[in-house]
Amino acid sequence: MTNENKVISIEYELREKGKDEILDSNMGGAPLSFVSGKGQIIPGLEKELVKMNAGDSATITVSPNEAYGEYNPEAVQTLPKEQFAGIDLKVGMPLYGQSEDGQTVQVTVKDIGENGVTVDFNHPLAGKELEFKVNVLESREATPDEVISGQVGGSAGSCGCGTGCGC
Predict the structure, then answer these.
(1) The pTM is what?
(2) What is the per-residue pLDDT across 17-54, written as a single tens digit (0 to 9) for each?
(3) What's the angle, vertex CA 57, arms to CA 51 and CA 61, rounded to 5?
(4) Over the stretch 89-127, which tens digit does the pLDDT of each residue have?
(5) C-alpha–C-alpha distance, residues 33 and 9, integer Å
(6) Which pLDDT value is given to residue 65?
(7) CATH 2.40.10.330-classified regions of the chain
(8) Do strands 6-16 and 94-98 pair parallel, antiparallel, or not at all (unpaired)?
């Protein structure tokens, strides 16, 4: 089995390495399923999961450079308060907007001043070493439709013929 185009389904708990607080988890809920090689999860986690088989469990440590990147202090900016008119701002709250190239971006409110709002464009987990406790529920070759669509189960509206035609 290659490392690309595998369907992998996992249960996981995410913590910052060395800390007890669970930052995210799907234990007991719907599994996280993805097609490997499509950039759907952080690279450091995927790199280890493709080596595992259904039924395997492990604790995987992922460095910042293979997760959400190093923390960039230059990604903290103070913007005019008028840009946030009508929003009940609170320190620590996430806000969503669009970048210059039309991508959705998340920022975190760091400080609210009289004339400006300081926001952090870094991902909330940037600069953190992450620890995932994972249980691999499924690991199999992707179907041709899953390979083309990049979606587990294939593309919506697919007839199932495997060509990705959408007929």
Answers:
(1) 0.80
(2) 999 999 999 999 999 999 999 999 999 999 999 999 99
(3) 70
(4) 999 999 998 878 888 889 999 999 999 999 999 999 999
(5) 4
(6) 97
(7) 73-120
(8) unpaired
CATH number of 6-68+126-149: 3.10.50.40
Residues of the chain with CATH 3.10.50.40: 6-68+126-149
Q: CA-CA distance, 162 to 128, in Å (whole number)? A: 40
Q: What is the DSSP string of the chain?
A: --SSSEEEEEEEEEEETT---EEEE-TTSPPEEEETTSS-S-HHHHHHHTT--TT-EEEEEE-GGGTT----GGGEEEEEGGGGTT----TT-EEEEE-TTS-EEEEEEEEE-SSEEEEE-S-TTTT--EEEEEEEEEEEEPPHHHHHH-STT--TT--SSSS----
Distance between CA atoms of 96 and 129, rounded to whole angstroms? 25
Q: How many residues does the chain have?
A: 167
Q: Is the predicted pLDDT of residue 81 greater than 90, yes or no? A: yes
Could you please state the CATH topology (level 3) that the domain comprising 73-120 is classified under. Answer: Thrombin, subunit H (2.40.10)
